[in-house]
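Blinded run. Sample ID left blank on purpose so nobody reads anything into the name before looking at the predicted structure. Input follows.
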Amino acid sequence: MVVDDQRLFASMLARVIDAQPDMEVVGEAHDGEEAVSLCLEQEPDVALMDLSMPHVDGLSATRKIRDLSPRVKILILTVHADDAHVFQGIKAGARGYILKDCTPEDLSRAIRAVHAGDTIMAPEVAEKMLSTFEGIRPEHRNIAAPLTDREFEIVRAFARGKNNKEIARDLGITEKTVRNHASNIYAKLHVFDRTQAVLYAISKGLVDLGDLNPGSP
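Blinded prediction complete.
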């Protein structure tokens, strides 16, 4: 589903997406309120969400969709690359955050990644996150978290953009075990996805900044 208040832009996005052999646009919405209603009606796999919209904005719509139709994965597509919007979008429940100047190929790859359960972030956005956390004083970062050594390994793999299959291969465990570890990590850190887990780990100095690869999903 495409959500954008600029109808011409939304139609152009729909054409780009429909041109992909494995994708189909099931609906277009032009404000947040319409997006929530359409998500409940159509239950799309992925909702491509703008942030700045009338009536109900994209962040509010993302929160409502996450609460009312949690199986719908939200991918934010916006012009806003500032820290405030990025962190609010992640906190609202978005599984990806990309910018409107991305290429059609980048857009298609991001949709597939989010659909597969991965998280993806535009390189410019990831670089801004790094800059934000570089300024945190060491005494505020080195706070222990109740994670096991294996859970630390998995959080670091998240930071490097590894998916569950790659993590399982690298660590010599099954994908089911990776998923179980991930669930434990989210519960311990009080987050709901791998992006928030990585952000928390970086902010506490539990993951080196060099572990984060801005060019990876």
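Unblinding after everyone has recorded impressions. The domain at 137-211 is CATH 1.10.10.10 (Arc Repressor Mutant, subunit A).
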